[in-house]
Design a protein that fits this description.
ten-stranded mixed beta sheet; six-stranded mixed β-barrel; single chain; 881 residues
Length: 881
């Protein structure tokens, strides 16, 4: 190890050689001159003193070479060692290709995943002093981080003492008039100080001014850099231009920076100030806003949370009807953006790091084998005068050549892997992880690659250099390659193989658990039949369809028109698709039931009369809606089984009345049916109580269309879009998808599927590398024990006993690796909580399957050298000795 350290410290000599030579000449001349003066002081002539000084000082050339050997090594030796290393690799192409390929795979996987970790967890958010930014939420039992109401926000902003600024935002969609027609445009509505709080300055134009979010102010907008380029061609005269959003002229006042993103919102083309409050925002009990704030200097997140909780408690007393049970939540903005994906990225990166570790272990194994085979060569070189440092230098050079080759190929493969993984992320998901779009070979990623390469060089150089002591070299020269050294290496290599097999078990178990989780996720009970279902989002202009009766007529016309399309069996509309997530909730109170002011929060959906039949949802009791049930008829609703179980345990819910918390007459509706639980939330979320209102009694302009088809649903999607535009060209359409696509592209399904593929790929490579490592150890063991096996067979040992001897050695290594791997797998699975669904960390079928797979693979890998051992000819084996 000391020899290696000295070598790496001396590498700088190559770059300072001229300076060293100059200083060396000056030093030698000074000493000669001083010696000459001493001789002259003793009475010698100047010429005699000069000759005497030179004789005493010694040969200049030899002294110069010795000095250079002390402080460094000459460039010639580096070139010589590099050429020798390349010749060695050319002579052993199998070793070279295997080692470089394993390094390439390990470095590529680790580097690609590190790039994702860097973009998500290391790279700072694109905001000024982002560590001072926090997300501010209300908190209730079912939503630990829920939306704010507009009235609560105003009170919080007035009473808070911990923020230098405090703003809110909410999502929004607009209909943009373009020369080619109306197009949906994603957007957001914000308070005027939002970008100032984030510390984001437009690259063109200006930010919103205070007061521009007040009612009656001119309507203005900021656009994203991508919108500026894609919709407006990057024209610099865009400032002051008017965009028509929802048939309302809107002046563009600024363009946001290229690097700006706000992941909680996802994609947003237009950012508008909150001016006109909608119906929800006028009520304190309706929550649709999210808060973002900048902490004052010296204020911690914990202090801010305490301040918000005290304000929430004050508002709860002041407004007991709307604010009962509502607390506060404050977390760092980075945690709000990255928190959900952090454990997923870390698990995947750990898998890639383990794969790199296996690759390094295997390459070290191969280098140890070569070192053992070159023991006599090293001994002869040492006997001829080569120092231990010089011998270690040769191993360092060979390791550098290997690592350089593997690193260059690994970096190239990593870049390709990054591009591939990015393309595999659906566009609607990438909108919510925009920080991944800038992924690439940035300085941090390349620095990590250099660090990995340096560590690999040290490991690969250290492994064969440990045994280059003078005593080992003398022993190697004496026995010509036999002796205890082979036994020592076998033991060391065996330990490495146990480590490899342990890591392989961990990755295989992780892949098995994630795959089983993904299977359970895709086979979770949905409460409807997803096959042959097509969906489409539509948005009608509010000004054209401002009145409820206009909205009802439009919904009926859409259903009638789509029903008549070829291949369509039935059509329906809903304000939200199934699997879209729990949310859009309301508070209910049951007439005749005891009530103490609690908030009974349930999912709320407005659906057409054909909705349940189109989904093929099962009616438990009662009936579904009739199309005639509109505002002229008594208000009715359908509930799901979860609501019936929770609020009507032991009684028949049909005929019961449900209203808002005050049981206002307009809110009271009669329960006419109970439907089987439809999974409204994500695939991995629990099923919430839900109420379904007839869309004819609660119409809207934004909803989703669902059609049940008799043919491939994908083929019907273009006809749906065309039919909607035939009804009204000003209606916006978005995301024509099949329900199967909706399910498969949902965040839980995508995350589990991606994790299963990635960890599964790592596991397959780990299994392959582990089995190759085991084969190498057993094969080397057989080669070292050829004489022993020959003697055994000469004395009458049967081939079966030789098989048993070799397979027993492999069996112990395999058992130790599997046992250690299973123990580590259970521990590692506890860190994968975000990726497991319906599976325990100690899932017996998965662990048993992994053990059997690895055991069988190890048996196959061990059988080949065992067969070779059993085929040894005793006479030839003894003659070779």
């Amino acid at each position: 190890m000391d020899a290696l350290a000295r070598i790496f410290r001396k590498l700088g000599f190559l770059f300072h050689r001229q300076k060293f030579n100059r200083e060396l000449e000056e030093e030698m001349a000074f000493h000669r001159e001083q010696q000459q003066k001493e001789f002259q002081a003793d009475g010698m002539t100047s010429e005699a003193a000069q000759h005497a000084a030179r004789r005493q000082f010694g040969n200049d050339t030899r002294l110069r070479e010795q000095s250079q050997e002390v402080v460094g090594f000459r460039a010639e030796s580096v070139v010589q060692d590099s050429r020798f290393a390349l010749r060695q690799l050319r002579k052993n192409p199998g070793f070279a290709v295997t080692a470089v390929l394993m390094l390439t795979l390990g470095i590529a996987a680790c580097l690609a995943l590190f790039a994702f970790v860097d973009s998500a967890l290391i790279k700072p958010l694109p905001y000024k002093d982002s560590a001072r930014l926090v997300g501010v939420y209300e908190s209730i039992a079912v939503f630990p981080r829920s939306n704010l109401s507009w009235e609560d926000y105003l009170d919080w902003k007035k009473l808070q003492k911990v923020y230098s600024s405090f703003d809110v935002w909410t999502g929004g969609g607009f209909l943009l008039n373009t020369p080619s027609g109306v197009q949906p445009a994603m957007g957001a509505r914000i308070s005027s100080g939002f970008f100032s709080t984030l510390g984001v300055t437009p690259v063109l134009g200006r930010d919103f001014r205070p007061g521009e979010d007040s009612r009656g102010a001119p309507r203005t907008a900021l656009i994203t850099y991508a919108t500026w380029q894609n919709l407006y061609g990057g024209r610099r005269d865009i400032i002051g231009q008017v965009a028509t959003l929802d048939n309302t002229p809107t002046t563009i006042i600024g363009v946001l920076p290229r690097e700006f993103h706000f992941a909680p919102r996802g994609r947003a083309d237009f950012w508008l100030p909150i001016q006109e409050l909608n119906g929800c925002e006028r009520r304190r009990g309706c929550h649709n806003l999210y808060g973002v704030a900048r902490l004052k200097d010296g204020v911690s997140v914990a202090t801010a949370l305490a301040n918000m909780k005290s304000i929430a408690a004050q508002l709860e007393k002041q407004y007991p009807d709307t604010n009962r049970g509502q607390g506060a939540a404050v977390i760092s903005l980075s945690e709000a953006i990255i928190g959900d994906v952090r454990p997923i990225f870390l698990v995947l990166f750990c898998g890639a790091a383990l794969l790199l570790l296996i690759a390094c272990v295997n390459v070290s194994n191969l280098l140890l084998v070569r070192a053992e085979n070159r023991r006599r060569e090293m001994a002869v070189r040492g006997a001829l005068g080569a120092s231990r440092t010089r011998l270690v230098l040769q191993f360092v050079t060979e390791s550098l050549v290997l690592v350089l080759s593997g690193s260059v190929l690994g970096v190239a493969a990593a870049y390709g892997t990054m591009r591939l993984l990015l393309r595999l992320i659906p566009s609607d998901i990438i909108d919510y992880v925009p920080y991944l779009q800038g992924i690439g070979l940035n300085p941090r990623v390349l620095g990590f690659a250099v660090l990995v390469a340096l560590l690999a060089v040290v490991i690969f150089s250290l492994a064969p250099s440990l045994r280059l002591s003078p005593s080992n070299l003398r022993a190697d020269l004496a026995d010509g390659g036999r002796g205890a050294a082979g036994t020592v290496w076998r033991r060391f290599g065996s330990h490495l193989v146990v480590l490899e097999l342990t890591i392989a078990v961990v990755l295989l178990a992780g892949a098995g658990l994630i795959t089983r989780s993904f299977y359970h996720l895709l086979h979770v009970e949905l409460g409807f039949v997803p096959d042959h279902l097509a969906t489409l989002e539509v948005a009608a202009p509010d000004k054209t369809y401002a009145k409820p009766d206009q909205q009802v007529r439009l919904a009926r016309q859409m259903v009638t028109t789509l029903d008549a399309l070829p291949g369509v069996q039935s059509a329906a509309v809903s304000t939200r698709l199934p699997i879209s997530g729990n949310g859009n909730t309301t508070w209910i109170r049951i007439q005749g039931h005891p009530w103490t002011g609690e908030h009974n929060e349930v999912n709320e959906r407005e659906v057409s009369s054909e909705y349940f039949a189109t989904l093929r949802a099962r009616l438990i009791t009662g009936r579904f809606f009739a199309d005639s049930e509109d505002s002229t008829k008594p208000n009715v609703l359908v509930i799901n089984q979860a609501l019936a179980r929770k609020y009507f345990a032991g009684e028949n819910p049909i005929g019961k009345k449900i209203g808002d918390t005050s049981l206002s007459p307009d809110s009271i509706r009669e329960v006419i049916g109970v439907v089987d639980d439809i999974r409204e939330g994500g695939l991995d979320e629990e099923i919430w109580p839900a109420v379904y209102y007839p869309v004819n009694q609660s119409p809207d302009t934004d909803y989703d269309i669902l059609v049940r088809t008799s043919q491939a649903e994908q083929s019907v999607l273009p006809a749906l879009v065309a039919a909607v535009h035939d009804i009204d060209p000003d209606i916006g359409t978005r995301n024509p998808l099949t329900m199967v696509q909706v399910i498969n592209n949902s965040p839980p399904a995508y995350i589990h599927r991606s994790a299963a593929w990635l960890v599964g790929g790592f596991a397959v490579l780990a299994l392959l590398l582990g089995v190759v490592g085991l084969y190498g150890v057993i094969a080397y063991s057989v080669s070292q024990r050829t004489r022993e096996i020959g003697v055994r067979m000469a004395l009458g040992a049967q081939r079966s006993s030789v098989y048993q001897l070799i397979l027993k050695e492999a069996g112990w290594l395999t058992v130790l690796g599997i046992a250690a791997g299973l123990a580590c797998s259970i521990a590692a699975a506890t860190t994968m909580g975000k990726l497991l669904f319906g599976v325990r960390s100690w899932d017996i079928p998965t662990l048993v399957s992994v053990a059997m797979l690895l055991g069988f693979s190890a048996l196959v890998a061990s059988f080949i050298p065992a067969r070779r051992a059993a085929s040894v000819n005793p006479v030839e084996a003894l003659r070779a000795e």
